[in-house]
Specification:
Transferase(Phosphotransferase), domain 1, disordered N terminus, 297 residues, 5-stranded antiparallel sheet, alpha+beta, 2 domains, 8 helices
């Protein structure tokens, strides 16, 4: 297929890309579009599998910061290997286009799921929390702060696997090495320390993002902004055990929040044992598909 503007792979609005703009891939549709890049589904001609292709818009191709962020995201995703993190496959540049190829997930984002089907059951919310906790533990062991955990950055694959994606805000923290770069995230899901521009944010900021995501999935509503006085978000009508986990994740003060993913996973494991062993508290009984298929109906 020929380019619509001679040698340029983009249309006049710089937001639609030619099907064969990147050698080795054939794009079939756009998945999403952000401020500096678009994400497309494409066929990998070598493997015969679909992949997700993130492409920096041309007007950002010479911006040092935009290039640095994409290159860092590519390096991180290609270096990580975890079932709850999207895999990075390849990256490169071609005729002014900088791109990152990632595994394709044939499922909605958590945000799309809650918009389409309403809140998840308590059991499914806790299972989502467990899988995100596993992902955060994996990142934390490598000194990585994702920085932008929210429903739009969690992909729900058929079969009950949740995958964290979009590492554009991610930072690598080294013990004893100062970092003067803040991690801002997205308002409503960003921790109070991120909102304050703190340059020393750590795993606890990501845990706050997990809590804010679970709040949205449990209630069907966006989470409230943090209470600077330390008040916890109200979750009227939500199962007690979900409320307890989410409120500790979203504690505005660091001393009251989970200090590590291990502590979160420990509490989630105890809750599951109580449920399976007949103790208290017990989640509301889910439909058979809740825990394993994210209620895709």
């Amino acid at each position: 297929m020929s380019n619509r503007q001679g040698s340029s792979p983009f249309a006049p609005d710089a937001d639609e890309i030619d099907m064969e703009a990147i050698p080795g891939y054939v794009i079939d549709r756009k998945l999403s579009s952000g401020g500096t890049s678009g994400v497309y589904r494409a066929l990998d001609l070598e493997s015969g599998h679909h992949i997700a292709l993130k492409i920096l818009f041309p007007k950002w191709s010479k911006d040092p910061k935009a290039l640095q962020l994409l290159e860092r995201e590519a390096w991180l995703l290609k270096s990580l290997s975890h079932p709850n993190v999207v895999r990075g496959l390849a990256s490169g540049h071609w005729r002014g286009l900088h791109w990152l190829a990632m595994e394709w997930i044939a499922g909605p984002t958590a945000l799309e799921r809650v918009h389409r089907g309403g809140p998840l059951s308590p059991a499914a919310v806790l299972e989502l929390g467990r899988q995100m906790g596993e992902a955060i533990r994996h990142l934390g062991r490598r000194g990585i702060v994702h920085g932008d955990i929210k429903p739009a950055n969690v992909l729900l694959a058929p079969g009950g696997v949740a995958k964290l994606c979009d590492f554009g805000f991610a930072r690598v923290r080294r013990a004893g090495v100062p970092d003067d770069e803040a991690v801002f995230g997205t308002v409503a899901y960003a921790s109070p320390e991120q909102m304050d521009g703190d340059t020393g944010v750590d795993t606890r900021a990501d845990l706050y993002g997990v809590g804010a995501t679970l709040y949205h999935m449990a209630t069907g509503r966006m989470p409230p902004l943090p209470d600077k006085w330390g008040g916890l978000p109200a979750m009227t009508g939500v199962a007690r055990e979900v409320r307890w986990i989410v409120q500790r994740l979203m504690a505005p003060h660091l001393k009251d929040r989970y200090a590590s993913a291990e502590l979160l996973l420990g509490d989630l494991g105890q809750l599951r044992q109580l449920r399976d062993g007949g103790g208290r508290p017990r989640p509301v009984a889910p439909r058979a598909t809740d825990e394993f298929h994210w209620e895709f109906n």
